[in-house]
Write a structure and sequence with these properties.
The chain is built from two helices and 18 strands. By secondary structure, the protein is mainly beta. The protein is globular, with a radius of gyration of 17 Å.
Amino acid sequence: MRYAKHTDLLAGRSVWIIRIDNDFTGDLTLLISKVSEAITPAMPGNHIGAGAAMDEIIPAQPGIRFIINGGFSHYRKDFYDWPHQDFQVGDPVGVVKIRDHYYEDFRDIQGYGFFVQNEKRAPWRIIRYADLNKTEKYVLGCTPLLIWNSEALALTVEKMQPLAQGTITPPSILAHGLQNHPRTAIGIQGRELVFVMVEGEGCTLPELQHIGLQLELDAFLNLDGGGSSQFRLWDGTQYIKNAVSPEDEKRVLGHVLILFDESLK
C-alpha cells in the first residue's frame, strides 16, 4: 500500500492518493460494510462490530489498515426492505447528502458504475450497469462513472445544475456536480486500486474527472462527497486521516470499504 498527499493535481488543493495492490491472496482482505448496521448489531449483514463513526470502528475491529467511505448503496440480495420501491439487487438507486443538500436517484442507469467482486479474494473491478452480473458476491453502486476504458465519459451539464436546499429531486444525483465539495473516488490502474480523496474546499465533478485523467486511470468512479468523505490509514505507527470539519468527526457513514489484516480479525 502506498499513499501521498498532492497539491499539484488541482490548483494547489489537497488531493490524497492511496494505492493498493488489487490482489488479496494473502492475509489482507478488502470488503464493503454497512456502518449503520453496527449501531444495531442484531441486523443481518453486520460485518464490522461496534461503532458508528470511523474513530469508533477502528478500536473495535483489530487489524484495520485502511478504511474509507464507500458511497451510496451496498447491494445484497433479499436484504433491504424499502416499501417505496420495487428493489432488486443490482438496481441503481442511491441517496447522497452533500452538506444540507439532498439528491436522490431512482433507476437512472446513465452514468452509473459499480465496484464489484466475484468472490472473496478475487480482484475488484469497476463495471458499467450493462455488465453487472447479479451473482457478484459484493456490489457497491455509485455515480457518476467518470472514466471508462481510459476515456472520459460525458458529464451532462443540465444534470449538474444546483437544486434547492433540502430538495429530493429524481432522477439525478449529479446536481452537486458543479459545486465544490470534498470528494471520494476509486480508480483502477493495471493491477492497482487507486483511491482519490479531495479534502478541504473540495472540487467539482469535472475537476475530479480531470484528476483521474492526469493519473491515467483505466476506470474511475465517484463514491461520495461532502462531510462523508473520510478515510483512516495505518502508516505503521498511527492512523492518518484527511482534514474533516469538527461537525463531521462523529458522522455516521452509511457504507465503507475496509482493508484489514484477516489474521487479526
